[in-house]
Amino acid sequence: MPRIHTILAAAVAAVTLTAGAPVMAQGAKGCPPGLAKKNPPCVPPGQVGKSWTPDRIYVEGDRVRGSYVVIPADDWAEYELTPITDDSIYVVIDNQIVRVKRSNLVVVEPIRILVDVLN
Prior knowledge:
The chain contains 2 helices and 4 strands; from the N terminus they run ααββββ. It folds into 2 domains: 24-51, no CATH class; 54-119, no CATH class. A hairpin with a 2-residue loop joins β2 and β3 (96-101). It has a 4-stranded antiparallel sheet with strand order 1-2-3-4, with no helix packed on it. It starts with a helix and ends in a 6-residue tail after the last strand. The protein is of the alpha+beta class.
């Protein structure tokens, strides 16, 4: 019988401790009121720019991954690209022209970013 009293006393103590705990007021979608009023809502100020990523800018030494378009040698003059004689090619990836090694697709030289003229 004393064991039941101990268990019952522990249960009552646990309920009493959690009932007295302060409850944080929640805004829309479960956000704290201060973050619910921000734009964008529910995102802390230091994290706002980290969720948005623009097109990747390739620099020398980066490896090209994903899809890309090879610029044929006949079109180099149209893009004002200098002729190359080594084992590299010009490619367009993420609206950027880069010169890469043909063998391993490592960027040798970033050339320029293409501007969308339709917008």
